[in-house]
Give the backbone structure.
Amino acid sequence: MSETKTFLITGVSTGLGRALARAALAAGHRVVGTVRTPADARAFEALAGDAHARILDVTDHDAVDAVVDGTERDLGPVDVLVANAGYGHEGLFEESSMDDLRRQFEVNVYGMVAVVKAVLPHMRERRRGHILAVTSMGGLVTMPGLSFYHGSKFAVEGILETLGKEVADFGIHVTAVEPGSFRTDWSGRSMVRAPRAIADYDELFEPLRARRIHGRGTQPGDPDKAAAAVLRIVAADQPPARLLLGTDALRLVRAGRDAFDREMLAWAELSASTDFDDVVGRSV
């Protein structure tokens, strides 16, 4: 077995967080998992292995600090952080409210940042650690009806990429984990759906919403295999800055990048025309 580590994983009640926690426990690691209710805490601690539940709302930043500091004090150094807690907001841009946007960012962005900021000083002092956050293929490509969700995940991607460059010299690795469609409850209890109001969008959006609702349980991704993949990079000497999970993620992100490249090249001459005339070495 590889070196035993202490994991802190947010959002272990269901989905990828639960699958990863189970896999880490089965591999002999200690797992501190955050949940939202006492019942979920009891269920988590009933799992086989060295499981420790903490009740936490990641939007309560003082509570985040208390959980991290308490874990470091009572259970030892956090070797691996997996910022997994989050949810999806499904709704057309025009039909979604500013409160919807604030809540989406409070959980998916500010909550993630709060957890990372609480763990980072301890890792920096030790000059080691691995920070992972579960973003989404939706942090790299978009589809109609998920603008606020995509916005939150694009933000997380940018934050993590920058953070990785800032802490690399401290022996700290940073990885964005980008799942495609997995057989979890993301499109069920982990999704908030804005009510419909504008008929102009019916033809575009209603089939998409129906596919998300009725496609639950048929997604291609296996959460247990995703968990195994994450454990593999945690054990790697040089883990990736990004890890796409699922063939659909690979296909859709590749198609999105190809479309971006084509458009960039099509307009490259105009892009380059905006430099001062005395700029040397301008090329398209």
Notes: The mean pLDDT is 94.
